[in-house]
């Protein structure tokens, strides 16, 4: 038996182990129910996303809004829906930077109910004390219909819910006017949230979206899912170290024969 054969087997096993490590995803952003409910119709579960300054810069999560016609939705004849992806672009002890891709996915068939997403609001914990919103970001594929304000949302049974930031497509966070994100339109929102973020973790919460339609007004509570995890960078270092170590082993023993007792 040759050491070279043992080396080959060791190399193959190590390659599998390291490859598995490389493909192992980083931990996703955690999204959980807050235990509170709100919305129009009432009783919708509210969620929060836990953002870690140490682990989550560059990661993303999704918040989606859906309301199907039912006994508690009045005249609504077809579903309302919207999607969003929230990416953490930077996070320091004084500011949390986000890029949010928001799309009104409400269908216009079999009936166009003229659904406009007129505002989207959320809470921040620790509480936000300022925002910087970039509207003219140079991106030409979005609509730039929203402004942003540090404000509370008092409609839609969110009266006792701590809302900090509202993106406004109508007259104000409660709606009004003819503005908003129409079906199949997308807006990309770049936001810096200022606050006292000395703890490693901050929470984005509640995620309320207001829709104005030809069949009434509705406030939806968003439900969340983690975004696509990314590989941990440290595993690439492990790959390099493992390869160098195995190379040194081969150089030391080469093709020497091993003495085998049978």
UniProtKB/TrEMBL annotation:
<keyword id="KW-0732">Signal</keyword>
<dbReference type="InterPro" id="IPR013424">
    <property type="entry name" value="Ice-binding_C"/>
</dbReference>
<feature type="signal peptide">
    <location>
        <begin position="1"/>
        <end position="19"/>
    </location>
</feature>
<dbReference type="Pfam" id="PF07589">
    <property type="entry name" value="PEP-CTERM"/>
</dbReference>
<protein>
    <recommendedName>
        <fullName>Ice-binding protein C-terminal domain-containing protein</fullName>
    </recommendedName>
</protein>
<feature type="domain" description="Ice-binding protein C-terminal">
    <location>
        <begin position="229"/>
        <end position="252"/>
    </location>
</feature>
């Amino acid at each position: 038996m040759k050491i070279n054969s043992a080396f080959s087997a060791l190399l193959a096993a190590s390659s599998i182990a390291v490859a598995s490590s490389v493909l192992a995803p980083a931990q996703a952003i955690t999204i959980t129910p807050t235990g509170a409910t709100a919305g129009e119709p009432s009783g919708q579960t509210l969620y929060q996303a836990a953002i870690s300054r140490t682990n989550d810069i560059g990661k993303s999560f999704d918040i989606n809004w859906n309301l199907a016609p039912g006994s508690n939705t009045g005249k609504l004849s077809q579903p309302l829906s919207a999607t969003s992806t929230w990416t953490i672009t930077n996070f320091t002890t004084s500011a949390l930077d986000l890029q949010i891709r928001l799309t009104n996915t409400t269908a216009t068939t079999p009936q166009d109910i003229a659904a406009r997403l007129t505002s989207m609001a959320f809470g921040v914990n620790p509480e936000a004390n300022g925002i910087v919103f970039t509207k003219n970001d140079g991106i030409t594929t979005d609509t730039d219909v929203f402004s942003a304000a540090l404000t509370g949302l008092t409609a839609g049974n969110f009266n006792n819910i701590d809302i900090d930031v509202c993106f406004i497509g109508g007259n104000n966070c409660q709606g009004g006017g003819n503005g908003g994100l129409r079906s199949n339109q997308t807006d990309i929102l770049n936001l810096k949230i200022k606050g006292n973020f000395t703890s490693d973790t901050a929470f984005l919460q509640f995620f309320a979206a207001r829709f104005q339609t030809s069949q009434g007004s509705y406030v939806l509570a968003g439900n969340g899912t983690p975004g696509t995890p990314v590989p941990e960078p440290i595993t690439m270092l492990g790959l390099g170290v493992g390869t160098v170590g195995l190379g040194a082993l081969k150089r030391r023993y080469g093709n020497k024969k091993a003495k085998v007792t049978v």
